[in-house]
Structures are given as structure tokens and as C-alpha cells.
Amino acid sequence: MKRGLQAVYATLLALLASHLILAHPAHAASGLRVKDGRLVEANGQDLVLRGVNHSYSWYASQTSGVFAAIKAAGANSARLTLSIGHRWKPATTAADVSSAISLCQQHRLICILEAHDASGYGQQQGAATLDEVVGYWISIRGALAGQDNYVILNVANEPFGYHITSTWTQDTMRAIGRLRAAGLQHTLMVDAPDWGQDDLFTMRDNAPKVLAADPARNTVFDIHMFGTFNTPAKVQSYLQSFVARRLPIVVGEFSSNHPYGKPATDAVLQYAQAYRIGFLGWLWSGDTEAAYLDMVNNFNPSLRTPWGARFLTGVNGLRTNAREATVFGGAARRTKHRWNWSDLWPWSMAQAAAVRPVPSRRSRPLTRRPRRAPEDPAPGGGRAGRGSRTPVGGRRRDDAPREQGVQTR
């Protein structure tokens, strides 16, 4: 009798154990990740990035108040420029990166770290290659360890110049592979070529291949919308092409003005809201050479520029729809919403998929003026931009040679 009861108990325990194993997989997902074309948190909560860009590496003296001001403005995320020591020196150290992550966490912001030295490679003198940028990330991986709930690695800012696109796909896939092999399992963000604006649609057309090359399937695509995206139709067509294919996309930079084609800013905000796509405006403050790109003057949040007022408080602006990440225990947790594709917009997915993307070639060339050399010393012998009102490495949104002609896309 005793043996019979023991056998029954053993059977019941085995059944219970098998149920628990099935109900709770041994390898539960952790950290920010891509799921069904959306960026989600570890708990499955949809995360729609709403934030601003901050030139962290060049304005260290402004750090103490900037993060608090960005949070107070309504952001749930901040995209921070880092130097890898190639074009801009010195490199942002692992300690500096740890400090940036800590400041983001302190102010309840998702931290997007971007390596800036690769900007315009092939056209911009002194720009770093993707391989060199990956070497930097690997060298500071200790500062990134255990931060995958809070940190997104934007592998390289605008990594290729205009129409220098032939190697973007392979180079990007190789960069992702190296980062994964080095143990970095964070969500990765990859920028388009053509100074981030994907003029030849290289990123759009090869995004499925790039995502498939990521062993973690945890890559988000980053488009920058300036003068190239000067009509609502162009904005909608581009964003819709990603959403219809369930490919994760974010507008990592945009503004309300540009010297060669006025960006369709209202459309960027409108369609980002309609499709629940993340956006980050350029720039909080410090782009003195192109002051129309600053949201506030002199890092003073009470001195908003017209662009800042539009971005922060205008229709579909930052304050109207940003929700804090649930990892911080914010309001988004109390109003929990897991993504459902039927929530996307008034039309069906079939209708969206049927929309034919605009052609992938341009009839007219592009124009952007060259950046001012960032290595020029700032007044007093310091590095340009750090703790001064000198331009952020000549950081402009008009980066290519003037003689290329005007883009009307």
C-alpha cells in the first residue's frame, strides 16, 4: 500500500513538474527586444520611443541639468552621441558611458548610445568604418553588461555618405554578427546610408536580409528625415513600407528646417503617431552653427526655439503621446497595452501591403554642404564643442558637397 501511494505521488509530481516546465520556459526573454516587428520590453509591453538627441560627448559640462530637462520636457528616451576616438578625440571612455547610462536611469529614460565617428564614411574625410566602430563597442562592453533592459546600441551614426551604398548591407550584417559574437545581446539600431536618409532605398530594400542575419533577431532600423523627406507622401510611403512588412523602424533624427528641402515635419509626427513608430528629434541644444536645429537655446529649457515649441508641445509632439518605459514603474505600466496589429491604423494590413513603394532611384542629385572640421580646437585649447558654444563638431544636417545639385525627391 505504501509503495502504491509513493508511486501515485511520484506520478503526480512528475505531471506537475512537466506542467510548470511547459508554462515557464527555461530561457525566458529578457531585456528590450524586437517582437513581431515591434520594440518591446522584457515584460512584452510595447515601447514606442519618444525622445530627443543630446550631444553627450561634446557637452560634458552641461550634463548635470540636461537629462533632467529632457525628462521634464516629456521624453521617455534620449539618443546620446559618443566619440570612439577616431574622428573626434578623446574617445568616450567606458566610465563616461557608465555615467551616461546611470544618468538615463536616474531620470527614467531609455538610453540610446550612438557612435558618431562613422558619419558619412566614404565622403566625410576622417570618418570611421563600421569595423572600427564595432571594435569600440567591444572595447567598452563591460560598461554595457547587464544593461539590456535600459540601453539600445545605435551601432553607427549615418555610416555612409550619399550614394555610397554598395557595401552597406554586407558591412551592417558583419557588424551585427561581430557584436553578437562578442556577447552583446542588446537591441541594436542600425542607420541608413546616404547620411542616414536612405536616398537610394538601400536600407528599405535590404532590411529583411539584415534582420535575418541577426542571430537574436533584435535589430531596429533607423531613418533620418531631413531635406530628402520634404513631402508627406514621401514620409508615409517610407514608413509604411516597413510597417507593412512588420520590420521595426524608428525616426532617429528629424527637424523642422533644412537648407535644401524643408522637411515634412508635421507628416513625420503624424505618421509616427498613426503607426506607433518611435521618433527622436534633433537636437536638444548645442548645434550653434545651425541654430535652427536646436530645441532650446544655450541649454536653457525655458528658452525654447520655434522648432522646440513645435516638437515638444505641438500636434502629435513629444508631450502629447510619450509614455515612460514600464521598467521604471511608470504610467505605461498602469495603462498596460500589448501591441495588436489591428490597432495600427484605420486601414487593413492588406491595404497597406498593397501600397507600392516609391521607386528606388532618383532623377536629380543631392545637395548638402560640407561640415566644418571638428578637430579644430575650441577657444582656450579645448576640444571643439566640449563645454563651449562652438559647434558640435560642425554638426549639421547639410553634410555633402555643395556642388552636387539640389535634391527634390
UniProtKB/TrEMBL annotation:
Keyword Hydrolase: yes
E.C. number: 3.2.1.4
Keyword terms of this UniProt record: Glycosidase, Hydrolase, Signal
InterPro entries: GH, Glyco_hydro_5, Glyco_hydro_5_CS
Any one GO BP annotation for this protein: glucan catabolic process
Annotated Pfam families: Cellulase
Sequence segments annotated as region (Disordered): 356-409
Compositional bias per record (Basic residues), positions renumbered to this chain: 359-371
GO terms of molecular function: cellulase activity
Chain ranges of the Glycoside hydrolase family domain: 40-286
Signal peptide region: 1-28
Catalytic activity: Endohydrolysis of (1->4)-beta-D-glucosidic linkages in cellulose, lichenin and cereal beta-D-glucans
Family: Belongs to the glycosyl hydrolase 5 (cellulase A) family.
Record-linked PANTHER family: ENDO-BETA-1,4-GLUCANASE A, GLYCOSIDE HYDROLASE FAMILY 5 DOMAIN-CONTAINING PROTEIN
Record-given protein name: cellulase
